[in-house]
Design goal:
homodimer, alpha/beta, 2 domains, 13 strands, globular
Chain lengths: 383, 383
């Protein structure tokens, strides 16, 4: 048997799967785990995918994606994000936001380069950075999970190739203020590095305004933006997203795309095009429901043993626990004894006991019951 | 504007797209270019995908793929490939064979390791090896494109992590004899390295028998096998394939999968399951047609200015040209002046003038016309 030599030893296991394997899950468990919305795709998108299945959807598309989808994306970017991107040189359709991220890293880095990510981080960004042989440099955000500019700026070295921001944030829900994103974007321009802006949760804001850093970069020269259909259009299983980037990267991005996936799944591309053209505000119609669920969390978790910064975006809260116990263990007890799944802070590289709560997948009844169980469990475990 | 730093500078552009961008393509061009079959998926598979779209196909599946698909794959492997693989520890569903390959490389290598690939090689394997920061060591095959064992064995060093074989081969069509595959497989076992066997074209053999190296590795300890639905089931756009590997790699493979793609596209997984269960011999029913087309090539290209080893598999011929002109230029003239697309040998790392001819996508009429144009063009250019 060959020895196992791989780079994967240095990264954690797919955290959600690992957690769920370690425990026995009660039948009526309520999941505040995986970050998925409660709604599915627009009917029109399902229909478009279904038609494509029969017609031409079994063929490869261009590596960058079908032209009409890229054109629809360009229009959406102009309309919603105030980004002027050309369908022919700035846009690539990918098999989801994660592939967009690793495509980007493979394009802009060499082995040994470093990438700045903000902590608590989206674990996948950390894993991808390690897998491509680069060093993730993590910088802690402040107590409200907002970037501390000076802390970021001081860790940049000649090896740094990009600063990554996620707003609205996974795992904290923080929506970064315009001036913060603008300063990070300008700093990247000044330092001749890239700003990678993951905007997967762009449509999930509550009393806040989503800002796209590429809109500050008039000539689109140093900003790379990642978007996904998984959350906004309720189609994670379709594996479809896109990345917007400076045109000088186009040929290089194509090489990586061809190597990893050739093209995004064709039927999903047709679904995405239809979704953009017929239901651009799909997510919006579900926000009132989500806001009710959100308020159940805000009211219910106003308890003394946790500190819950009230953030304004995505569908996560990231609660800090007043305890010394490792949150991995707490999360396990919460599942087995209290019937509620949360994700421990460790997997997001957070150095203090904490839990990520995802509320996107719940209705009001489930939310009430979930919060009840969570509060009962936390009071018992931490009290 | 940031400088461009990336590792992608060292690899070629997605070759087919690059070639087609460089020329003006006549309207009635006949393509012997991209390696796609002329047929689409079984009706049952389209129906299954269509049903999944509506029911649950918009949700993530387990990272490794839906269990019932992995079970169907295990049965197929047992029945057709004589491989005993467990759905729970040896099989992962991927977004196509390319993703299976790069997942594998990321799992078994560290930066700076080397991978042995046989020349002429499938360009994607070369590109993937470079992208993960490893060194592709290429070893020329013999004049019939069969591996020369001693040449392979002598380039193995402590940095070598795997030998890659593709049988039936892309780009040559060679079907490797059993004893050759067996010796390579045994050698890998003796050297404690992996044998990566790409069997994308397993169902396309003409008067030859396909052999799966993992069937020689009784305990599945050092063989990694890659399969695809793209060719056998006519569904390249669905992006669906799978990889079979030693169970000691399972957790590590999962990490990579989670990072790159989370899971393969869900509707495509249901299509694949249905294809395996209802139409396992889908490709077989098209082989008689393909054989007629194949014979048109064999007969038509019996001309003095080319050397065409008659190989027995996939749907490629790799012809050597008696000339000193670069084949990239010849391929361009063939498109623009003679209306026929071929892929130049350079992109497969072949050091002599050569062209890959793909005949999988043609009917008899197109094949006759395509060969006519090709012969006319080659006689003119080389004569």
């Amino acid at each position: 048997m060959p020895k196992f030599y791989g780079r994967t030893h240095e990264i954690q296991e797919a955290p959600i799967q690992k957690l769920l394997i370690e425990v026995s899950i009660p039948k009526d468990v309520i999941s505040l785990g995986q970050g998925v919305p409660f709604f599915g795709p627009p009917k029109e998108a399902i229909l478009a995918a279904s038609e494509a299945l029969n017609k031409h959807g079994y063929k490869y598309t261009e590596d960058a994606g079908i032209l009409s989808l890229r054109e629809a994306i360009a229009k959406k970017l102009h309309r919603e994000n105030h980004i002027n991107a050309s369908p022919d040189g700035n846009i690539m359709v990918t098999a989801g936001g994660n592939q967009a991220f690793i495509n980007t890293l493979m394009t802009i880095t060499n082995t040994g380069d470093s990438i700045i990510i903000l902590s608590p981080y989206y674990f996948n960004h950390f894993m991808a950075t390690k897998l491509v042989g680069c060093n993730p440099i993590t910088v802690e955000t402040d107590s409200d999970y907002i970037p501390r500019l000076e802390d970021i700026f001081e860790v940049v070295t000649p090896k740094t190739k990009a600063i990554v921001t996620i707003s609205p944030n996974n795992p904290t829900g923080a929506v970064y203020p315009k001036h913060i994103l603008k300063e990070i974007n300008k700093f990247c321009s000044d330092m001749n590095i890239y700003h990678i802006s993951d905007e997967t949760y762009e449509h999930f804001v509550f009393g806040a305004i989503h800002q796209s850093p590429a809109s500050f970069d008039k000539c689109l020269e140093h900003t790379i933006s990642i978007y996904s259909f998984s959350k906004s259009f309720g189609m994670p299983g379709y594996r479809i997203g896109y990345v917007v980037f400076p045109s000088h990267l186009y040929n290089e991005m194509l090489k990586v795309q061809d190597t990893i996936s050739i093209c995004a799944p064709t039927p999903s591309q047709y679904a995405a095009e239809s979704a953009l053209n017929s239901c651009p505000s799909h997510a919006k119609s579900f926000l009132p429901t989500m806001e009710k669920v959100r308020n159940i969390f805000i009211e219910g978790l106003n308890i003394s043993c946790v500190d819950m910064p009230i953030t304004n975006g995505s569908f996560y809260f990231f609660i800090k626990l007043h305890t010394n116990k490792p949150s991995w263990e707490i999360a396990k007890v919460l599942i087995e004894k209290y019937g509620v799944i949360t994700i421990p802070g460790e997997v997001f590289g957070f150095p203090y006991p904490a839990l990520r709560l995802s509320y996107g997948n719940l209705n009001e009844r489930e939310a009430k019951e979930g919060v009840k169980r969570l509060v009962k469990g936390l009071n018992k475990i931490l009290g």
